[in-house]
């Protein structure tokens, strides 16, 4: 039996089977793993594509936005060269944080988002950028084109979350945020990650 595209006989892998979107890197598809209501960190299991429990959140901090990744991206050589203080990419898809006015309280959804900036984060010497985006056609954020147009408090919350979400008493913090960048650099990071993906996995 034949199946017309884009129908899949089996569920496509969220990282490898979905598209970053026809307008990437400016507008991208995002696969959401975590919502602002989650107190457990979930992430896809790379071999199967199913959502797995990574760890319970030890502290009281909750993610300020929807959090997931851009399909068919990879943090490799091109990505870490855009992050001067990192020594390598982390080998994962590029993470994305998506602002939405209306609460979205379920994960494992796909959405279209406009890339407006990012956090240049380093974790254990690895480039671990967090792309900042807004939900496409969102009634509040839909016209935002750059992170500079957003209230600084919201970006500060993202900074705080990512510098504390792995905190363990008695252990050294391994994460740092070197800078906040705007849409132009964020587009470069997403494009670099798409090229890194092509080199490692092909299309």
Write the layout of secondary structure elements.
Elements: E1 27-34, E2 40-44, E3 51-56, E4 66-69, H1 77-80, E5 88-89, E6 95-99, E7 110-123, E8 126-127, E9 130-135, H2 152-164, E10 175-182, H3 183-201
Number of strands: 10
Q: CATH fold name, please?
A: Inorganic Pyrophosphatase
CATH class: Alpha Beta
Outline:
globular
In the predicted model, the low-confidence regions spanning at least 5 consecutive residues are: none
Proportion of residues in helical segments: 10-25%
- How many structural domains are formed by the residues? 1
CATH superfamily, please? Inorganic pyrophosphatase
Order of helix and strand elements from N to C terminus: EEEEHEEEEEHEH
Q: Biggest β-sheet, characterized?
A: 5 strands, mixed, barrel
Mean pLDDT level: 92
Strand order of the largest sheet: 1-4-6-9-7
CATH architecture classification name = Alpha-Beta Complex
Total of DSSP H or I helical runs spanning 4+ residues: 3
Structural class: alpha+beta
**How much strand?**
25-35%
Q: What would you report as the Rg, rounded to the nearest angstrom?
A: 16 Å
Termini separation comes to 24 Å
């Amino acid at each position: 039996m034949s199946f017309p595209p884009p129908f899949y006989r089996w569920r496509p892998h969220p990282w490898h089977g979905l598209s970053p979107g026809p307008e990437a890197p400016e507008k991208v598809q995002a696969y959401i793993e975590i919502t602002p209501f989650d107190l457990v960190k979930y992430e896809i299991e790379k071999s199967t594509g199913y959502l797995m429990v990574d760890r319970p959140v030890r502290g009281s901090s909750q993610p300020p936005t929807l959090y997931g990744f851009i399909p068919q991206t990879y943090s490799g050589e091109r990505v870490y060269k855009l992050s001067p203080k990192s020594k390598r990419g982390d080998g994962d898809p590029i993470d994305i944080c998506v602002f939405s006015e209306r609460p979205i309280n379920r994960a494992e959804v796909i959405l279209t988002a406009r890339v407006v900036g990012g956090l240049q984060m380093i974790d254990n010497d690895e480039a671990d950028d967090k792309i900042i985006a807004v939900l496409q056609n969102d009634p509040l954020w839909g016209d935002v084109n750059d992170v500079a147009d957003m209230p600084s408090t919201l970006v500060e919350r993202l900074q705080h979350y990512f510098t504390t979400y792995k905190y363990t008493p008695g252990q050294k913090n391994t994460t740092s945020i070197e800078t906040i960048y705007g849409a132009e650099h964020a587009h470069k990071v997403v494009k670099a990650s798409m090229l890194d993906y092509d080199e490692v996995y092909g299309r």
